[in-house]
């Protein structure tokens, strides 16, 4: 059974939310396009290319191909406006960061935020650990004598 589509709705809008795919799976230029799109909320290929040009100049057709790939992957949705498509992210930059950090924690640290924070604390400093903890929503406490930071969590992993 197929669903009726109106002129402004793309088949891409019917795809499931980006749940099985990871932001970490994006190619560097795809991620650059997303980092350009997130601050503006939505944009055409031309707008994305123009904003990307000062750091990474690319042909219009290259950005068009990348945005089409992102739409097919379900990372962005698009709607037709005149002759151009307008692209909009399907997840916020904050959601993408949280997803990516969560995958790093799961993949490299066995699911332990504490192990990540300990790794960052070994030479990276408490400020960086606090910033990472804040991005994953983990409150930190600090040892008064050593200044070492640690995540404040209950045994079940919920924040204190």
If you had to describe this structure to a student in words, what would you say it looks like?
It is a single chain. The protein has 160 residues and is an alpha+beta fold. It folds into two domains: 11-90, Orthogonal Bundle (Arc Repressor Mutant, subunit A), CATH 1.10.10; 94-151, no CATH class. The protein is built from six helices and four strands; from the N terminus they run αααββαααββ. Strands 1-2 form a two-stranded antiparallel ribbon. A two-stranded antiparallel sheet has the order 3-4. The protein is elongated. 22% of the residues are buried. Residues 1-20, 141-145 and 152-156 have low confidence and may be disordered.
Structural class: alpha+beta
Q: How many helices does DSSP assign?
A: 6
The main sheet comes to: 2 strands, antiparallel
The order of strands across the largest sheet is: 1-2
Report mean pLDDT, rounded to a whole number. 77
Give the low-confidence spans: 1-20, 141-145, 152-156
CATH level 4 superfamily of the largest domain: Winged helix-like DNA-binding domain superfamily/Winged helix DNA-binding domain
Radius of gyration: 20 Å
Distance, first to last CA: 48 Å
